[in-house]
């Protein structure tokens, strides 16, 4: 904190010490310094209080905003101090030195330059003149500057974007710090400069102009930080002086230098006086700025205050690290803005990191520990990460502070999908469980079953099992990877725990523990080889550095060398356990296969192939068989010399499987014989093995299509084929076709191959279509899934990417197939949970089974919706899907909404027709159920109306993009509704409304999406079907027509915002909460729906609201943003009809709305007098009732501690954690620095 030169000279002879004190800089005024040396307490009686600005004489010259000396040297003689700092081309030290030189010559001109610097840094175009500075108080100057605040936008230097302004903020803060540092020995004690600056900043920080408040608060806090540094230096100098004095006084009389004692006493007295003045300045800033601004309405201002108080407590802990200041950080941890909470946590991290300060934080920790623990679940991930790191520091300082419940609340975060949170939680877990080592572990081996890592690996397994999230092993490994990577890479110890026999007295691992250890081992190997987080964590693969690539290669080599030997042994031991074998068989995918040859490990490869063959023969589980198939696929790499050996083993295995399948199938399909269960099991098990291998290997040379098609055809004719055989036969046939397509796509096939593939594909699709009517639900689901995949693959998009030769393979579903697919969705997807009896195996109460069944239904619906999106089936078939949007919103709302969005991107008009078709279907169903005379307040009709409102929301805010689609929608519905309006058609009944008239009430939900010009055109189109008598009807049955006409007429003359809504929604920003209009009668939207304007009430002319003073938002002229011409391409209306005036009773006489002043926009002007305690700090006083006892409600004075050798510090007050003090508006209202 103090320069080395100062520390050195403090211990020299008195003359040198005096020189050090009085010659801090060459720019200081010698007269001023000499006056300071002779000043005593008597001279302080008449001094001015730091809060009032002193006027020491008239300002001389006209050099406003000039910094002397430095500007001429650099060719910037006309630049202000603000411009010099903004450009950043000059060193801050030289800029401050030039200002000090100017201050020596004429302090009024220099101080005026500094005042204008703060004004201009706020973005104000005005300037303080010499006359204003000489005759006006600070409050009057600030009021004048507020009136001249002519900003064009809401931005000001501290909020502007770009590298220049980011650098300006750091330069601004650095300038203040350097200014105080350079003036710390004399100028800041002249009772003029600091008094004026503190008074100005205090007044600006209380301004309603956000720019003034933000800039002055930042300046005041940085000024306070610089003063704290000065106070710390003074404290160190006082301690040094005291030690020198006592050392000299303790000498014998003969060697004691009385003149030195007198000089040291004088120096200590002067330092004490300086410290008193610094205390006054800091008290003025703390009470005048911090106490009010730490709860400002602007989050950035609150964050500045909390960040700086953390710096004070860390820098000068003897004076600031006590409960009187910690309470502000504790209260602000309840702030509603994440950035403020984040500053609280980072400030506390700096304190908890120093173990010497832990004793002073005990009371704070006990009071706010629960809040810190709860912040680990903060909605802002950055806050949660820092909260976990803070708890890690707390844990590092003491193990007894956090309870078991506190630790458990952090443990489960290692499974978080957000990687920074998980990594921080992993570090906490490692510190808690793995970092403590007892003395008995010192002599243990480094690796192996009896090693330290062996015990830690067991601890990891125990934790993994206790968390009951076994499928998230990859997440646990990824969380611990950065802090426990060496432990997770100790694969020798893991293998030893699995293969070696336990020592006498050692407890062996259970079956579940061995399974968990194998999974953790697999996840660690995958993490080491792939070097990226698991799926669901992270944005994607990042580019590895050279060091990371080398580590990756070294780990892969080591993995191969270890597991090439150990894997056959592990497979032999656990060959009957399906779960263990499945995980173990994934290890060869990460091998460096070249090592089998270079390391002379061929015998271990042979052993591995034998074990894989035995696993295939023993197991019929799909997961195990697919793992074997993928292992063969990984080993059969033509780039390595082991390919021939592995390929021979694979071919022998597949030859045996196919021969066995053909032999069993021939016996199984013999006519006249009833197949027994044993034959069916043999066929099924063999078919499972072939299907699993066909997924990753091309088995075309065995001609599996004929046998599988024959099997499916027989099952379709007889109807008694076991469902699992049918399912796997379908899947195997599907693989046959896909492998044939892959071969044809390569271009090396003949025309006969193309014809064969086309015939096989169409025959198989017809076979799957026939199975859609099967009585077995599982078979129907498999047939539906394969059909959707086949239709997608062989759709018109197969010829894309220059593959025109495949045009003959395009398969377009006919109307019957489309209808069957749609009926399947309606019958098997849109069902209640309790009705799904086939997918849950009777376990209706099992929550996991219900979730699995829902997941399966979502996949089925997504498969069909893809057909709609890619135009494989007609778009109008989506009407039956869209009409289920409200009823099944929780289960399929996201899928249906995304489908509507994609279809609108393809064809807006056809999508609008499909939406209306879905509403018409629901309306007709309602008519058939309730009859023609239904109640429009019934739940059915209200449900249709609500669905229409949801549909209208999906069109978005940009009305220009959806203009044509909305117009076509209205035309379609009007034709649907007005079929009885035409006088040439038969009447529904004399004097009765048409049958579909009520549908106009539903259509009115889309009227708000029409542009002003289009509303007129639609209204004229509607009148073509109306008679004069209809217009006069006022009975309840005619209300839909009246309501619809009103929705078209609302805002007909003044609906300017309908044109510019797309611009205003993106361009305007309302900063103040008071600018939000009061909304009443809002509908409640389910989660995920956005807000919308009220659609039932007509647009009324608003009351003219006064423009707020100094509004910073400039609205464009709406007339310039309106389209000049009315376009309605879908309506065939003649020019005569367009020019026909409206009847007098239909014309509007509303006062035109002036949108320039109709809505209040608040820019930089914001009133922070509103009670923000409830919003910003604590949501309820009840949460802090236990903190209210023994609190001191007054704001304390900054009392710097006495010198350390005297140890006369006063005791800490009992408790300062008083939340009520932030509600006490009487604390520190007036300025504390007043010059008398």
From TrEMBL:
Gene Ontology cellular component annotations, sorted alphabetically: chromatin; chromosome, centromeric region; cohesin complex; nucleus
Gly residues biased stretches: 56-66
Coiled coil segments of this chain: 231-284
Family according to the record: Belongs to the SCC3 family.
Keyword presence, Nucleus: yes
Ranges where the SCD domain occurs: 290-375
Signal peptide: none
Biased composition range(s): Basic residues: 36-48
Subunit structure: Part of the cohesin complex which is composed of a heterodimer between a SMC1 protein (SMC1A or SMC1B) and SMC3, which are attached via their hinge domain, and RAD21 which link them at their heads, and one STAG protein.
Organism field: Oncorhynchus tshawytscha (Chinook salmon)
Pfam families named among the record's database cross-references: HEAT_SCC3-SA, SCD, STAG
Compartment annotation: Nucleus; Chromosome; Chromosome, Centromere
Compositional bias per record (Polar residues), positions renumbered to this chain: 1091-1101
Alphabetized GO MF terms: chromatin binding
Protein name: Cohesin subunit SA
Keywords from the UniProt entry: Cell cycle, Cell division, Chromosome, Chromosome partition, Coiled coil, Nucleus
Annotated region described as Disordered, given as residue ranges: 1-72, 1062-1120, 1192-1218
């Amino acid at each position: 904190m103090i320069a080395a030169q100062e520390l050195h000279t403090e211990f020299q002879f008195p003359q040198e010490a005096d020189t050090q004190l009085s010659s801090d800089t060459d720019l200081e005024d010698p007269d001023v310094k000499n006056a300071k040396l002779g000043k005593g307490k008597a001279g302080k009686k008449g001094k001015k209080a730091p809060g009032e600005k002193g006027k020491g004489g008239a300002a001389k010259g006209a050099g406003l905003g000039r910094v002397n000396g430095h500007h001429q040297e650099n060719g910037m003689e006309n630049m202000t101090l603000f411009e010099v700092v903004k450009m950043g081309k000059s060193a801050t030290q030289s800029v401050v030195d030039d200002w000090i030189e100017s201050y020596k010559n004429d302090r009024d001109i220099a101080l005026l330059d500094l005042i204008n610097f703060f004004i201009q840094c706020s973005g104000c175009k005005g300037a303080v003149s010499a006359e204003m500075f000489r005759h006006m108080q600070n409050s009057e100057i600030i009021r004048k500057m507020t009136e001249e605040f002519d900003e064009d936008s809401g931005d000001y230097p501290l909020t502007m974007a770009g590298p220049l302004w980011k650098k300006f903020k750091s330069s601004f803060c650095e300038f203040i710090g350097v200014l105080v540092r350079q003036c710390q020995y004399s100028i800041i004690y002249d009772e003029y400069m600091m008094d004026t600056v503190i008074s100005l900043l205090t007044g600006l920080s209380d301004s309603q102009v956000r720019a003034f408040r933000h800039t002055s608060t930042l300046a005041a806090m940085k000024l306070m930080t610089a003063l704290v540094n000065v106070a710390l230096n003074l404290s160190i100098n006082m301690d040094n002086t005291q030690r020198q004095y006592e050392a000299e006084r303790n000498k014998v009389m003969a060697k004691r230098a009385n003149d030195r004692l007198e000089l040291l006493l004088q120096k200590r007295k002067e330092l004490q006086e300086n410290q008193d003045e610094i205390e006054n300045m800091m008290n003025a800033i703390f009470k005048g700025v911090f106490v009010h601004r730490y709860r400002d309405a602007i989050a950035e201002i609150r964050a500045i205050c909390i960040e700086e108080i953390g710096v004070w407590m860390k820098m000068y802990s003897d004076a600031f690290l006590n409960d009187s200041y910690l309470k502000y950080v504790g209260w602000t941890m309840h702030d509603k803005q994440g950035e403020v909470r984040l500053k609280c946590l980072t400030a506390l991290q700096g304190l908890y990191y120093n173990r010497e300060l832990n004793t002073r934080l005990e009371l704070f920790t006990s009071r706010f520990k629960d809040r810190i623990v709860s912040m680990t679940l903060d909605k802002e991930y950055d806050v949660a990460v820092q909260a976990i790191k803070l708890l890690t520091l707390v844990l590092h300082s003491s193990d007894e502070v956090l309870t078991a419940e506190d630790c458990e609340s952090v443990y489960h975060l290692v499974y978080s999908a957000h990687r920074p949170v998980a990594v921080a939680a992993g570090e906490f877990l490692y510190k808690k469980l793995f970092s403590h080592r007892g003395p008995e572990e010192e002599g243990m081996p480094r690796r192996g079953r009896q090693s330290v890592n062996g015990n830690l690996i067991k601890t990891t397994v125990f934790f993994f099992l206790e968390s009951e999230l076994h499928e998230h092993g990859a997440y646990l490994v990824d969380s611990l990877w950065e802090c426990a990577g060496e432990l997770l890479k100790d694969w020798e110890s893991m293998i030893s725990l699995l293969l070696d026999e336990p020592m006498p007295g050692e407890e062996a691992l259970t079956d579940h523990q061995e399974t968990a250890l194998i999974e953790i081992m697999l996840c660690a190997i995958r993490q080491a080889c792939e070097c990226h987080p698991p799926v669901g964590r992270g944005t994607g693969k990042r580019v590895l550095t050279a060091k990371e690539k080398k580590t990756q290669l070294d780990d892969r080599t080591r993995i191969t060398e270890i597991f090439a030997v150990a894997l056959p042994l592990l497979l032999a031991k656990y060959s009957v356990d399906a779960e263990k074998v499945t995980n173990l068989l994934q290890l060869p995918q990460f091998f460096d296969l070249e090592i089998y040859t270079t390391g002379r490990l061929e015998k271990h490869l042979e052993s591995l192939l034998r074990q894989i063959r035995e696993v295939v023969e023993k197991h019929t589980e799909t997961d195990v068989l697919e793992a074997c198939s993928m292992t063969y696929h990984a080993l059969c790499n033509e780039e390595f010399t082991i390919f021939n050996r592995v390929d021979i083993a694979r071919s022998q295995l597949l030859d045996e499987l196919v021969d066995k399948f053909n032999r069993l199938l021939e016996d199984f399909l013999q006519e006249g014989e009833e197949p027994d269960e044993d034959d069916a099991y043999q066929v099924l098990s063999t078919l499972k093995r072939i299907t699993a291998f066909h997924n990753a290997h091309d088995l075309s040379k065995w001609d599996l299509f004929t046998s599988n098609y024959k099997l499916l055809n027989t099952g379709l004719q007889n109807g008694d084929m076991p469902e699992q055989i049918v399912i796997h036969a379908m899947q195997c046939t599907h693989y046959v076709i896909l492998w044939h397509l892959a071969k044809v796509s390569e271009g090396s096939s003949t025309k006969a191959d193309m014809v064969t593939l086309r015939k096989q594909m169409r025959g198989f699709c017809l076979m799957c279509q026939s199975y859609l009517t099967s009585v077995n639900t599982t078979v129907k689901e498999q047939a539906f899934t394969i059909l959707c995949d086949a239709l997608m693959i062989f759709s018109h998009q197969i010829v894309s990417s220059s593959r025109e030769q495949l045009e003959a393979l395009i398969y377009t579903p006919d109307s019957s197939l489309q209808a069957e697919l749609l009926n399947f969705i309606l019958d098997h997807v849109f069902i209640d949970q309790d009705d799904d009896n086939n997918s849950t195996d009777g376990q209706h109460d099992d929550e996991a089974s219900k979730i699995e069944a829902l997941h399966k239904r979502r996949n089925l619906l997504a498969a069909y919706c893809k057909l709609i999106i890619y135009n494989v089936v007609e778009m109008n078939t989506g009407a039956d899907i869209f009409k289920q949007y409200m009823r099944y919103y929780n289960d399929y709302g996201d899928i249906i909404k995304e489908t509507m969005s994609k279809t609108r991107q393809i064809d807006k008009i056809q999508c609008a027709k499909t939406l209306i078709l879905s509403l018409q279907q629901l309306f007709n169903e309602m008519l058939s159920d309730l009859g023609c005379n239904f109640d429009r307040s019934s739940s059915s009709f209200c449900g249709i109306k609500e669905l229409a409102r949801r549909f209208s929301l999906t069109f978005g805010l940009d009305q220009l993009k959806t203009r044509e689609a909305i117009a076509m929608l209205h035309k379609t519905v009007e034709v649907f509704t007005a079929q009885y309006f035409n006088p040439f058609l038969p009447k529904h009944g004399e004097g009765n409304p048409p049958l579909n008239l009520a549908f106009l009430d539903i259509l009115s939900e889309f009227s708000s999406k029409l542009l002003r010009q289009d509303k007129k055109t639609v209204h004229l189109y509607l009148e073509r079907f109306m008679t004069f008598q209809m217009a006069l009807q006022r009975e309840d049955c005619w209300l839909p027509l009246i309501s619809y006409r009103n929705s078209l007429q609302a805002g007909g003359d003044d609906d300017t915002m309908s044109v510019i809504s797309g611009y205003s929604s993106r361009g305007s920003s309302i900063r103040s909460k008071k600018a939000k209009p009061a909304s009443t009668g809002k509908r409640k939207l389910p989660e995920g729906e956005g807000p919308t304007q009220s659609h039932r009430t007509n647009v009324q002319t608003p009351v003219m609201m006064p423009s707020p003073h100094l509004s910073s938002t400039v609205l464009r002229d709406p007339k310039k943003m309106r389209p000049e011409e009315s376009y309605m391409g879908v309506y065939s209306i003649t020019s005569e009809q367009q020019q026909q005036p409206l009847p007098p009773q239909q014309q509007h006489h509303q006062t035109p709305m002036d949108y320039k002043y109709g809505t209040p926009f608040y820019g930089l002007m914001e009133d922070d007098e509103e009670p923000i305690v409830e919003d910003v700090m604590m949501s309820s006083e009840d949460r802090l009732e236990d903190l209210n006892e023994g609190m001191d409600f007054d704001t304390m004075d900054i009392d710097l501690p006495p010198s350390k050798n005297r140890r006369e510090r006063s005791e800490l007050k009992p408790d300062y954690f008083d939340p009520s003090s932030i509600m006490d508006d009487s604390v520190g209202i007036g300025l504390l620095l007043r010059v008398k």
